[in-house]
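Technical note accompanying the year-one report. For the benefit of new consortium partners, we illustrate the data format agreed upon in the data management plan: each record pairs a sequence with a structure-token string. No post-processing was applied to the example shown here.
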Amino acid sequence: MAKRRKNRTHLKGGQRDEGKSSAPKSFIIKHGHVGSSITQLVRDMRKVMEPNTASRLKERNRNKLKDYMTMGPALQVTHLLAFRLTPIAPSLRIVRLSDGPTLSFRVERYSLMKDVLNTARRAKSIGMEYLTPPLLVLASFPQPGPGTPPHLPLVMKAFQSLFPPLSPHTISLSSARRVVLISYNEERGTIDFRHYLIRVKAHGVSKRVRRVVESATSSSKPVINLGKEKDVADFLLRRRGDPGPDGGYESASSAESAVEDGDMVSLASDYVGRNNKKGTKRAVKLEEVGPRMELRLVKITEGVPGKEGNVIYHEFVKKTKKEIAEQKAAIAEKERLRKQRREEQERNVARKKKSANKKGDDDASSDDEGSVEDESGGEGDVEHEVDDIGEWDEEEEISEGEESEDEQDLSEEDSSDEDKPPAKKPRFHRKR
């Protein structure tokens, strides 16, 4: 009996339905020659943007930026994030395919995911959180108004378009596993990028009690060593500042409650994890997993790289109204010439197609005229042939006209060839 084939039940992102097809998708690449650190940063950003990104995209040195912008719309990719190493600092370009705009950032400082995890007190298990897209939080951005810089609302919309829209009425609570925080630093004029995991823990339980319960119910966590304690009550009820069994003083975080009342929420529905049922009170914590980035906006341009348009904003170059008008006029003239060349090419293609079709009709008409010529030269037979092209009339009588001179010569040659013996093949002698 043949072995039953297992179905694929571990597809990334769960079942693919029609609603997810409208979610923004992205390419995250490195452009040009970069070091190993920027390469790892690209991999970390792909983890952040999962599952709506090409996490296993393989780049080659011969691939150009134009290749990704050409193939992106065909693969329903909406955004392109390109990292590049410049002589000043690494840069990041966020390109909206296929019409723009393009936002150019300078990466002032960054930390990789492994660096952030190494600084944590405890190792974090990372895996199932990346099956759903993260939640986007925009913080410290000023409200739109007369005194607000005009480029900040465009930056907010650019980051919002990178992630799927959030619908509180239809979202599943168990799918909210990660948070991406984009905050604006007004003092430095930079944008901070942070990535967190959402952790739900028991509320109103001290850290020692939680350690005892977790070690008893979990097979992966080690059993607590109480060999130095006289009684289990000494371990559970020890107050802050009291000396421990080894003579040292414990920190406040280890003795007090793990969370405060402000972090407590009542779950609206079941959540992932043990005993996280609907209606229970749980504490929500954010644990940073990285990467971190501090971005400085340099330039915003219309269009995409290679087809840049008007410069909407520039951090270091300030132009007068006259220079802006001249730039717009030059861009309009360039666009007019491009449309003119395209129209001329379309006219040339149409003209060549028309001439090719006309030539094909002429060839077809000449073939039809040759086929309707009657061997006897009668006009009535010509009409009959035109009506029945490609058909043969069995009852039609073919008049035996006079043979032409060529046919007579051929017949004489045939009859004479039958009487004559076969001709001998000539022999050639090589000269010595």
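Partners are asked to follow this layout when depositing records. The radius of gyration is 40 Å.
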